[in-house]
Amino acid sequence: MDIERRLEELNIQIPDMPKPIASYVPFVKTNHYVYISGQGPSVNGENKYTGKVGKDITVEEGYDAAKLTVLNVLAILTEAAGGLDNVERIISLRGYVNSDDDFYDQPFVINGASELLIKIFGEKGQHARSAVSVNSLPMNISVEIELIAETKI
Amino acid sequence: MDIERRLEELNIQIPDMPKPIASYVPFVKTNHYVYISGQGPSVNGENKYTGKVGKDITVEEGYDAAKLTVLNVLAILTEAAGGLDNVERIISLRGYVNSDDDFYDQPFVINGASELLIKIFGEKGQHARSAVSVNSLPMNISVEIELIAETKI
Amino acid sequence: MDIERRLEELNIQIPDMPKPIASYVPFVKTNHYVYISGQGPSVNGENKYTGKVGKDITVEEGYDAAKLTVLNVLAILTEAAGGLDNVERIISLRGYVNSDDDFYDQPFVINGASELLIKIFGEKGQHARSAVSVNSLPMNISVEIELIAETKI
Fold this sequence. Notes:
Three copies of one chain form a homotrimer. By secondary structure, the first copy, chain A, is of the alpha+beta class. Chain A has a single domain (3-151), classed as CATH 3.30.1330.40. Chain A is 30% helix and 28% strand. In chain A, α2 packs parallel to α3 (106-121). The radius of gyration of chain A is 15 Å and the shape is globular. Chains in contact: A-B, A-C, B-C.
């Protein structure tokens, strides 16, 4: 599988690695495992899709926020693995959805991230997942995603 | 330790593996580690114990929901490990409790899962754990549990 | 690196290992990895800094709560690794902040934990991190932190 070519075919561009907004690092690599810090739907450091899904933004916008968020995750994974072709597989993804107390469509929102991973990596993109609501997120972003991946090297 | 026999003694029946409700897989196995996707208290695909613990259902019902949820986790672990006798140990469990903003009994709810794991696996069932509230969960389930386990093979 | 000497220089005293309040263990060690159960800002078993950050306590008090919480995490890590000098590195930290629905300063609160880890361990203390709000925590503690570390032995 040649992921770089696949990204071109899908017309997907991996952004620059987002800078941490606090006292932590974007990822830690230990042996073949990469732990990626919680990311949000930012573009060039500016947050998109702020507010609560189902109240301030629609489920469809939440889906797009999750898609945008996972691009930032992939920017970090590119750096951590030395290119996405070195990714052995995506292991797990945890998605936090900023929502009201009666929002039940977290899985559809986080699908924005999961479906893009599977589109890019195929079977190696399939992952264990949890999707939950939280009552608020940093800087009022709508979605936060953290991920663990395995690398070939 | 013969877990299958222990399950019989305890009169516990592991259900069929629940189907994911979105774009992810029930588990990922990497080396000897199994990461299991967030599960809820469903029976044959139907959610039991919906609503917020402490408001819509009691703490005792929440305890039963956690117990039911971990049975679904064990169904997946059975498949991932090729039988529960191949489980080396339970590593960690994270429990999310759907509750109001002034609910403080998350540990008692998630004990429904932890106590069953220890009953079944003994010392190997002892695990690191976090229990937190969230303001909502997918399809309004009352409890969501994710787990990491180590296998012998 | 001599962590024990560093702790003396910083005048930091690692407390006794807190006792679990439910059916789980403070940590699980598998190979070189230590998974630590969610901890709170307790001192000798008594919870400090209860309530919601930004409402019942200030962000600065939340920062202090995170600092106090990570001392309890380090007490457990000391036991798990046989002394903090055996810590190879901190891998990941997840911080849950008990807050209202319009609180956006989770990163500043959890910095209380992250900055202490970096002060103590230097580069080995840098970690992947997620910081999210939750609408409630066990016994109304203001902060809960879980952590994964790698040990040399």
